[in-house]
Amino acid sequence: MNQLIITGASSGIGQAIAARFLADGWSVLNLSRRPCPEPGVENLVVDLESPASLDALAELLPGRIAAEGRICLVHNASIMRADRIDALPDADLRAVLELNLLSPNRLNQLILPRMGAGSSVLYIGSTLSEKAVPGAASYVIVKHALVGMMRATCQDLAGRGLHTCLICPGFTDTPQVRALIDGHPETLTAITAMNAFGRLITPEEIASAVAFAAESPMLNGSVIHANLGQRER
Fold first, then answer.
1. Is the dihedral of CA 106, 107, 111, 115 positive or negative?
2. Which of 80, 163, 202 is nearest to 129 (CA)?
3. How many CB atoms lie within 10 A of CB 133?
4. What is the pTM of this model?
5. Strand 71-75's sheet: what is its strand order?
6. How far lies 41's CA from each of 11, 21, 107, 132, in Å?
7. Nearest alpha-carbon partner for 76 in 142, 136, 122, 112
């Protein structure tokens, strides 16, 4: 059986990806602090911001990785904080780097040696992987850095039969976004006006893009913007 290994599938886009792969007949292993609520998902509890927690995971994870079939590793877990480049403490930036960059790197070291031909390493980026907005400095920094990590993955794994890409969602109807717009209809109007369809993206739409990418070696090295056509200003 093919296996999805995903971080942060406890809600939102990650949960939708887990549900989609389960429906497609894959086994699913979620790595996060909170379990994925989808029946049939196997969960390993880990704090991806903690090197010590990742050390403990390194003892458990090898026995949970499928010995046969394709593996799709999806680096989905992320955090977005409101901060500015002129007021960004080292400790705050370091915490964001731990979750968004260092944990994917550590998981790559643990899982890539066990991935056979046809497997894939997929990164979940953002519209802010290739542009910036004020007030989200640490998020912009790490999402830009994921582009480099994905491209390095493409180049360094060439010839092994593995492929990679970065999928960049626009504003998606997740608990995080709903918390942002709750009680503020003007915020929802402003956000949905930023794409050509005037609505939020559904997590299931992003999950479909991820499922397609897992089956598509021709996307190797690609940055894929999944944002309903971002309106440029």
1. negative
2. 80
3. 10
4. 0.95
5. 42-45, 27-32, 3-7, 71-75, 120-124, 163-169, 222-226
6. 13, 10, 19, 35
7. 122
The β-bridge relationship of strands 27-32 and 222-226 is: unpaired
Give the span between the Cα atoms of 155 and 174, in whole angstroms: 33
DSSP string, the chain: --EEEEE--SSHHHHHHHHHHHHTT-EEEEEESS---STT-EEEE--TT-HHHHHHHHHHGGGGS-SSS-EEEEE-------BBTTB--HHHHHHHHIIIIIHHHHHHHHHGGG--TT-EEEEE--GGGS---TTBHHHHHHHHHHHHHHHHHHHHTTTTT-EEEEEEE-SB--HHHHHHHTT-HHHHHHHHTTBTTSSPBPHHHHHHHHHHHHT-GGGTTEEEEESS-BPP-
**120-156 residue pLDDT tens:** 999 999 999 999 989 999 999 999 999 999 999 999 9
| Averaged pLDDT, 185-198 | 90
Q: What are the distances in angstroms from CA 149 to CA 26, 85, 89, 116, 176?
A: 26, 22, 24, 20, 25
* Rg of the chain over all Cα atoms, to the nearest angstrom: 17
